Amino acid sequence: MTPTSPTKLRVAIVGGGPAGIYAADILTKADVDVSVDILERLPAPFGLVRYGVAPDHPRIKEIVKALQRVLAKPDVRLLGNVEYGVDVKLEDLRAYYDAVVIATGARADRDLGIPGEEHSHGAADFVSWYDAHPDVPQSWPLDAPSVAVVGVGNVALDVARVLAKTADEMLTTDIPAHVYEGLRAKTTTDVHVFARRGPAYAKFSPMELRELNHSPKVEVIVHPEGFDVDDHGMEHIGRHKAQKMVLDTLANWVGRDPVGKPHRIHLHFAEAPTEILGGAGGATTLRTERTRPVGDGTVEGTGQVTNWDVQAVYRAVGYRSTALPGLPFDDRAAVVPNDGGRVLDLDGDPVAGTYVTGWIKRGPVGLIGHTKSDAAETIGNLLADAAAAGPTAVLREPGDVDAYFAERHVDVATFDHWERLDQHEVALGVAEGRERVKVGDRAGMLRAGRVS
Ligand SMILES: Cc1cc2nc3c(=O)[nH]c(=O)nc-3n(C[C@H](O)[C@H](O)[C@H](O)COP(=O)(O)OP(=O)(O)OC[C@H]3O[C@@H](n4cnc5c(N)ncnc54)[C@H](O)[C@@H]3O)c2cc1C
């Protein structure tokens, strides 16, 4: 084997979601001789595109095709089933790579900060279940006739839609048998979505909102109480075109006559959750307080309290990144502190050769496309630093990295492995007249990817 050129830039990217893969793409397109290893804790790449985007959004999941082309590039290697902080530390990576880019995203749920929170489910956990994430239990309790979802973003809509739709409506997607059976056992008829503020501030995407209305089994009811827009709200929608479109759609729906579909999604505005009541069996009541605008976009309580009789409460108020071993972490903002992607230590000085991109860099907001521009900034700074510092890694051969993992008995799932798993999932789909059926357990994923 020809030895790697001593000047070839060696980069490790930790996290094989869109942010990490776009970073690899930008590196390979730059005017430098580079080789990139993407270390991913799961046996499959693509992060939240595979394990966050809802199964009934196949068009968005198509992005994996473009991401897969990056992974197939000769200067890019996928090292899946490798967990940073468990299988490898930052100091280890330093020995093999001139630069390390952390792109580990966000997986935890933010809290509501109200009493009784322990009786609620985090949206991220539910999303991981219906998207067949291999590290979550395969069963999920869906025996609540009435459910509350707190939040007014697209994740709240995803959760509400999956809770309201029938299992058979979801059967055209890539959900595996355990998710289908779980959804089939569902007894939910009413999903109540709660927003603290008025409709002018709803953060839904216009298309996601309109899509709610497309199910033949699900009716959307926008409740007129609290459906008010003050002067600040009018100014706000004047500045935010998408939110104006959302408001127009909601205004068309508010107060319309029900048509009698078997499942309902209720949208409630100006209702702030204040407490979740429950016991060992989970939630029994969500208590909310009606709010009114104070004129600057925020709201205050009116003292008018409502107890909603629900048997499950989901928090969909945002994701949260978690700290990584060996790296500074800003717990308030839940990001790795950085300046344009250069990781900063506790004194605010750059940590040499260490970068972040994606949700761990700027927090869990924004769509897949945003991770591309994000990666461009980080990689721009990385390349400038690398040009100035020159090579720093002492063990520069890809084989050195392979030997490291082999010595530690890490069962690395490479790109070839992913291609075999991918083909296996497509074949499972063909057998059922679907495009794909996901394998939802780690052992099964690893087995399917091995050469038989
Ligand atoms: C429920 C949900 C639905 C969404 N739907 C849409 C949508 O429809 N359209 C859209 O454009 N955007 C959508 N988004 C947003 C989109 O998913 C994000 O913008 C994007 O995935 C963020 O990319 P990322 O690479 O930073 O993080 P992630 O996608 O989270 O990728 C991070 C990767 O790092 C890996 N990782 C984590 N820790 C480690 C470790 N210690 N070692 C190794 N690897 C590790 C993870 O396994 C993961 O693969 C959605 C997000 C959510 C939460």
Automatic annotation (TrEMBL):
Q: Which Gene3D superfamilies match?
A: FAD/NAD(P)-binding domain, NAD(P)-binding Rossmann-like Domain
Q: Which InterPro entries match?
A: FAD/NAD-bd_sf, FAD/NAD-binding_dom, Ferredox_Rdtase, Ferredox_Rdtase_adrenod
User: What are the required cofactors?
Assistant: FAD
| Documented EC number(s) | 1.18.1.2
Q: Which UniProt keywords apply?
A: FAD, Flavoprotein, NADP, Oxidoreductase
- Record bears the keyword Cell division: no
- FAD/NAD(P)-binding domain boundaries: 10-170
Q: Report which reactions are catalysed by this protein.
A: 2 reduced [2Fe-2S]-[ferredoxin] + NADP(+) + H(+) = 2 oxidized [2Fe-2S]-[ferredoxin] + NADPH
The family this protein is said to belong to: Belongs to the ferredoxin--NADP reductase type 1 family.
Its protein name is ferredoxin--NADP(+) reductase
What is the originating organism of this protein?
A: Nocardioides bizhenqiangii
